[in-house]
């Protein structure tokens, strides 16, 4: 069944209060729910109360304290006939958390009990109107064996606890803030807390605790620092203050997503909490800071103001991603953060937007909402709101968000409510801008630039104006996406600068706002055609096709004062070269290659550049982004051209790579930007050397591995060793495995390094790893570590003959009955068949059809597979 946004109706019944009583057990938890229900004046007045369920049975139903038989099941839903307008409805259910391999609802992880209710997991615990516009005040009581479940947590404030005298104990929690069911959480088990506190700007002292398995508490300091910094930043920038006396985080090792913003009780995947220098990379530290902030920020953008329905998901996710990006930019290097965010957008969201699963940030329909927790809803959603900050300026934008929070506090709102609040509060007209919410697809903006011919009759006047006019002509076009054959023009804000060729300077950045399919803008005061720097800071999530010569790109890569634009010029230089090489349209290969070599050499030599930025500028554009620039291509050719360029750069600049590796290897470990930059460059230098001089790279990588005091250096060295067929490879992998045995997150790295490796035998390695005793299909992190790394490894996944496609299809079929949510995440890799050569496309389709033929697929996989075959 397809659910449509246009079919939204207000709930028939509201549930202002709910009391939940849990008798906890790993395999038989009894749940007694008491719902205060009230007919909604905005509904049709039906006497039928429909409560959603999923894989649960009602053991008993009472109404106003009396046994009630006037109910029936309608599919998975419980429908109760009620005589009046307000009642107390009691329902008892019995669930087996240890059998819950879907990890949705109440489940067991390593002896712990925990929950994941977003989006529709609450209905796996008890019957309820499981939709985000039904807000209730929750009172929770739980009891269980004290030895097995010493810690008992739920949302809100702890109100009472005690012993039962029979080895069991109990606790009560009350959350005063009405919330939708998807924000409910319960955790029980043996946990230890890292505690701290934060005093809010109005003087509320908040007790903070991060709960982990005993032994892991030493690795929670970074998460705690990140949390405290987030609380402060949200007060300082958005004026948002925390609203309970306690804020708890629990980390669990079995988790479908990254983390969850349950009110007052965030539940995290351990990978976004645990870190110390020996086991976590710099990237892991950044990810923890970002995700901790993200979940905390949801307390306002998501919890205090929630979503009316799941079509509005980007209301909370797009906005919260923007907020966490802004926070991380403030904590570290803002330019580097911007580059990283754009890299992810291009690598993941752009392909989604041009493929069979393309959808607007506010989708119009879905079969399974879990499939819409996508890079489009999250990352493009953030870009769309970021454009509002470009149009209004941050100060006025914040007046808009303040109005939004004031206006909708305590409500379940829509994306339209958000846009309206920004219009009113920031003073913008966003009429046309709303197309970003309605239309999928990445707009392509083509730019033409002309210099007005010198007009002799205007010579004098032209001279006083300081020269001639430059006209930019911009055309926008967006390719059709499924269900949207025609696209209306978007409103596209582009920051630009025009560099004078003679002086190497520009006369200030300008903002141009494209609203038509085609539009021209003229700038006065030039004597010759300037060098165009456009979409500076990536002010709009579009593709730019601009008349910038190789020479101009080299100039911008060296001189652009906007760090993002400088990075972009470097990327463009390489993208054009590689795309031309793959498409067979590259004219002067040697010259083009030489230009790249010169630009990269200049980056290596530029003493004014910090190493964090240098490391960023040295990264070659990713294969997925390169594939986006081609209509259809053999992915192994993209891979080969990219590796070829890497090898050539490795050889040509060999002395510089060696010197860089020597220099940065001498920088001692710290978490400061300078040392992190050094580590980033260290691995990049090894990567280029590995392509050019495997023996020297192996020697250096082995030395780096042996001397490593931290995971960034160790993992970087191991990655390079993994890619080489050298004797050091096996030894280093064995050492790594033995050294970190028992640390699940590090063993995940061991799996993904091998599965994502450039090593020509990667497929063989992956098949063997799938049989390794440490591999399991029930832990999502482990499944992703092995199989997502493989699916993203172009040379292995796309190897001629289709073996890689078969392996991923086998995985999907095997994983689906265990965890459909995670299984569905692998379908897009097979779904991109239109972008590869026809021989491969046929093989990919055949695998999709093999999956589709399975009669008992989850709704998750079914939707993704059928859409991938249709388009
Ligand atoms: N709201 C959570 C987060 O952003 C993610 C929940 C994931 N749920 C899911 N069904 N995939 O921050
Ligand atoms: Zn989120």
UniProtKB/TrEMBL annotation:
It comes from the Bacteria. InterPro entries: Aminopeptidase_N-like_N, Aminopeptidase_N-like_N_sf, PepN_Ig-like_sf, Peptidase_M1, Peptidase_M1_dom, Peptidase_M1_pepN, Peptidase_M1_pepN_C, Peptidase_M1_pepN_C_sf. Its cofactor is Zn(2+). Its EC number is 3.4.11.2. It is an enzyme of class 3 (hydrolase). Keywords: Aminopeptidase, Hydrolase, Metal-binding, Metalloprotease, Protease, Zinc. SUPFAM superfamilies: Leukotriene A4 hydrolase N-terminal domain, Metalloproteases ('zincins'), catalytic domain. The keyword Transmembrane helix does not apply. Transmembrane segments: none annotated. One of its GO terms (biological process) is proteolysis. This is Aminopeptidase N. It comes from Novosphingobium taihuense.
